[in-house]
């Protein structure tokens, strides 16, 4: 079994909060990680997709009161929206009795849904962590591009063949569209949402043009934005915001959008393997999204991420803004001989970043200019990970 980098952070967070919500898409490994932690202590696992476990929780206050000496792991917690006020009362009662933290580990497949339900009810009592698909730091034993091509969902990455991996991802997409997504909002025709998801895949790393999507789908802009919001909330799509600052430049205001897992991106575009990907027009944009997901999975929550683009052509693929005010400019190139372009130099003149990197698929780290380095993705995330420790 592949060890997850989030393991130690989750254990530590449980020591400091009565409740921890572990968020992530379905099949990303939340249950496996939770049970691994639960095996090392007195714990109880409840799956709210199980009729038997839902029956146990018909009167949650009575049932959970009998297990306050355990770490209670509640899977698919979004199925019980009325549970959070109950948890608040139980947590407060335990606090008054002098009991320790680490009482509840809540697993959910959507971010905003849980935040809405628990944000006020459990304020000061709950911490949120996101489990992403596997990252390059977690899978050093795999060929360098296999994680990129197949994506980081465990069953996809560990499949016996490329065909089996693609088949798993296609079934995953179908299940989300037909069974899972209807749980989280108004009924949306699965075929319409599939078409929209595929459009997003073709637009990988592009600026969000809601009006164009609306025309292509035959719906209004408000509906398109609700689709985007839903896929973002389900942690399947990333909306990367543009840099906003009064620097006397005309800045692009639309966000960029990415299908977060590269394997799902390739499945949506029916790209079966590396050879097909390398000859596909989306190859550069796919690599960009893959790099961004790995980088953002290695920085702390207080680091702000955005992109920079001006009407005059200045552009940085990823801008990391640190709490101390420092900026890191990260350019992403799918070339073993990357070159710094005029737009990057122009943007750096505007922004004056403290560090400049070009992430590329090679392994050698070297200086490209006086203050800019070419760096591999694995070295980049290791550096970020070391800072966060």
Automatic annotation (TrEMBL):
Family matches, as Pfam families: AAA_14 (PF13173), DUF4143 (PF13635)
Domain AAA: 18-138
Domain DUF4143: 178-335
Name of the molecule in the record: ATPase
Entry-linked InterPro entries: AAA_14, DUF4143, P-loop_NTPase
């Amino acid at each position: 079994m592949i060890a997850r980098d989030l393991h130690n952070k989750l254990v530590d967070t449980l020591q400091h909060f009565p409740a921890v919500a572990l968020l992530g898409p379905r099949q990303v490994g939340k249950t496996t990680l939770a049970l691994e932690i639960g095996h090392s202590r007195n714990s109880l696992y409840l799956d709210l997709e199980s009729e038997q476990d839902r029956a146990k929780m018909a009167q949650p206050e009575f049932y959970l009161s009998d297990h306050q000496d355990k770490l209670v792991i509640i899977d698919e917690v979004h199925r019980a929206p009325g549970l959070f006020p109950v948890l608040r009362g139980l947590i407060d009662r335990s606090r008054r009795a002098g009991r320790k933290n680490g009482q509840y580990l809540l697993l959910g497949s959507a971010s905003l849904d849980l935040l809405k339900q628990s944000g006020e009810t459990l304020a000061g009592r709950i911490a949120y962590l996101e489990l992403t698909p596997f990252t390059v730091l977690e899978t050093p034993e795999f060929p360098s591009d296999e994680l990129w091509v197949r994506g980081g969902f465990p069953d996809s990455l560990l499949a016996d063949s490329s065909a089996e991996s693609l088949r798993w991802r296609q079934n995953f997409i179908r299940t989300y569209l037909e069974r899972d997504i209807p749980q989280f909002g108004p009924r949306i025709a699965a075929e319409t949402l599939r078409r929209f998801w595929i459009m997003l895949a073709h637009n990988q790393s592009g600026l969000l043009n809601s009006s164009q999507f609306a025309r292509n789908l035959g719906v209004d802009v408000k509906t398109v934005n609700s689709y985007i919001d839903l896929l973002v909330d389900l942690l399947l799509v990333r909306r990367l915001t543009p840099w906003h600052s009064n620097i006397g430049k005309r800045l692009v205001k639309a966000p960029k959008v990415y299908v977060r897992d590269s394997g799902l991106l390739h499945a949506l575009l029916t790209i079966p393997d590396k050879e097909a990907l390398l000859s596909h027009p989306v190859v550069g944009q796919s690599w960009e999204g893959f790099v961004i997901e790995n980088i953002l999975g290695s920085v702390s929550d207080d680091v702000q991420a955005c992109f920079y683009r001006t009407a005059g052509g200045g552009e940085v693929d990823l801008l990391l803004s640190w709490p101390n005010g420092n900026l890191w400019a990260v350019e992403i190139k799918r070339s073993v001989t990357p070159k710094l372009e005029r737009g990057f130099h122009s943007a750096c003149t505007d922004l004056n970043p403290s560090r400049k990197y070009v992430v590329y698929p090679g392994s050698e780290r070297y200086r490209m200019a006086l203050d800019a380095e070419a760096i591999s993705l694995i070295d980049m995330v290791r550096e970020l990970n070391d800072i966060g420790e």
